[in-house]
Design goal:
Shape: elongated
CATH architecture of the largest domain: Orthogonal Bundle
Order of helices and strands: EEHHEEEHEEEHEHHHEHHHHHHHEH
Number of strands: 11
Helix content: 40-55%
CATH topology of the largest domain: Trigger factor, domain 2
Low-confidence stretches: none
Radius of gyration: 37 Å
Number of helices: 15
Number of domains: 3
């Protein structure tokens, strides 16, 4: 067997492997002997068929299989031992001659796409922006309002105020203001007067008390046959005909009241006994917000680092023809238009991938399963935090995280996120940070740029 490697360009190469029958003859013989033990041929007991017959029946098939096995093994062994940095998979070369199983020696040619040379290493001479997001009192107040609102409850009250919900009996009236005999009457009809479209109709409920009877016009109040049909329990077509007044006798008024800012709320949000007063609660909220914003700042830092380092590296030569062949091989159900449309974005992503690999080597970054699990848990924490739930038990976090990792697509995304998280943390200690203190609004605007 002979293997040779020849560069055919800056980022392309030709790898040649010459196999002689002697290289794989022993493997062919061993495989045929294994076949013999199991083969059941007409006229022969299992394991007793003559080798000559087996070679005639299966010889070429076995030879081709063993040649392919040896080719694959030796090809990747050579690439690994010679430390050849390739992109994608080796491709059978267009220069490949006809393969003959009868020949004593056979040559196989492979086109190799080589990774381009680039210098992406970082040092203190590299300066990258880093945003520190301030947490002010208004932001803490807003968070407290969210907690008290979500933990609130509905209370029965005697007098109506805006946003209250009313329940009562609605009755159809005639032109004289009297109930229509056999007309519409709906008991336990629920309304939110504050959502009425007509201000005049809405005002009729202001200051109303339980037991009051209010005369109003539902068709004017809602100006929607759909809403009217739902309120009066009739069809939409029937609702379109109901343009007169109705009376509404209030039997119940319900108001949603925010939870008091007390120990029960502190324990509910943060865990029992974590804080004992409002000052401690505000301090804990500030710490939580700062932690959440730090994740956002780190994410933005990786984006800015990518933009900076990609620009610093500059134009990079890629083996475009070979990469398109590889892309086509991996998307055999797609046409040439798909390849052309997606090729440039794929190459841009490939460039960033190669830069990340070089930076991970420089800073000795390794990603292991516990790292990915921690990323999954962090993502889970952030998802719960969006709903005001910051006191999630560790076992619940872990169960949610494990569920995410069982999804192959999600798991791949989490691995990539873990790489970038660790890369960002390491790069912050290497480069010079151009730190900027900004408000949340300023930070979000920077994302839009």
């Amino acid at each position: 067997m002979n293997i040779s490697f020849e560069k055919t360009g800056n980022v392309t190469a030709l790898l040649t492997i010459t196999l002689a029958k002697a290289d794989y003859a022993a493997n062919v013989e061993k495989t045929l002997k294994d076949y013999r033990k199991k083969a059941s041929l007409p006229g022969f007991r299992p394991g007793q068929a003559p080798m000559a017959l087996l070679k005639k029946r299966f010889g070429q098939e076995v030879q081709a299989e063993e040649m392919n096995k040896m080719l694959g093994t030796e090809l990747y062994k050579y690439i690994r031992e010679e430390k050849i940095d390739i992109l994608g998979e080796p491709l059978p070369s267009d220069k490949q001659g006809e393969v003959s199983l009868e020949a004593d020696e056979q040559t196989f040619l492979f086109d190799i796409a080589l990774a381009p040379q680039m210098d992406a290493k970082l040092s203190s001479s590299d300066t990258v922006e880093y945003y520190n997001i301030t947490v002010d009192d208004a932001m803490i107040d807003q968070q407290i309002q969210m907690y008290t609102s979500r933990a609130g409850s509905y209370q029965k009250v005697e007098e109506y105020q805006a946003k209250d919900m009313v329940k009562g009996t609605i009755t159809e009236l005639d032109e004289n203001g009297q109930p229509v005999e056999g007309g519409i009457e709906v008991e336990a009809a629920v309304m939110l007067p504050d959502y009425m479209k007509d201000e005049e109709q809405k005002q009729k409920f202001e200051g109303a008390k339980v037991g009051d009877v209010i005369v109003f016009n539902p068709s004017k109040a809602y100006n929607s046959d759909v809403e009217l049909s739902s309120l009066l329990k009739i069809t939409k077509d029937e609702a379109a005909q109901k343009t007169g007044d109705f009376q509404y006798q209030i039997s119940e008024i319900t108001r949603y009241e925010a939870h008091a800012l007390n120990q029960e709320l502190f324990d509910q949000v943060l865990g029992e006994g974590k804080v004992s007063d409002e000052a401690g609660f505000r301090a804990a909220i500030k710490e939580t917000l700062e932690s959440q914003f730090r994740v956002d700042s780190d994410f933005r830092f990786v984006m800015d680092l990518k933009k900076y380092i990609v620009a610093r590296v500059g134009e990079v030569e890629f083996p475009e023809e070979l990469l398109k062949r590889i892309m086509k091989m991996n998307n055999q159900d797609k046409d040439d238009e798909f390849i052309e449309k997606n090729f440039k974005p794929s190459v841009e992503e490939l460039k960033w991938h190669l830069i990340k690999e070089q930076l991970c080597d420089q800073m000795e970054i390794k990603v292991e399963q516990p790292d990915v699990m921690e990323t999954a848990k962090e993502v889970t924490r952030m998802q719960f935090a969006q709903y005001g739930m910051s006191n999630i038990p560790e076992d619940a976090l872990e169960n949610y995280a494990k569920g995410m990792l069982e999804n192959k697509q999600q798991a791949e995304g989490l691995v990539n996120r873990t790489v970038e998280r660790k890369l960002g943390a390491a790069a912050k200690a290497v480069v010079t940070l151009d730190e900027k203190t900004v408000s949340l609004d300023e930070f979000n605007k920077a994302f839009e740029e």
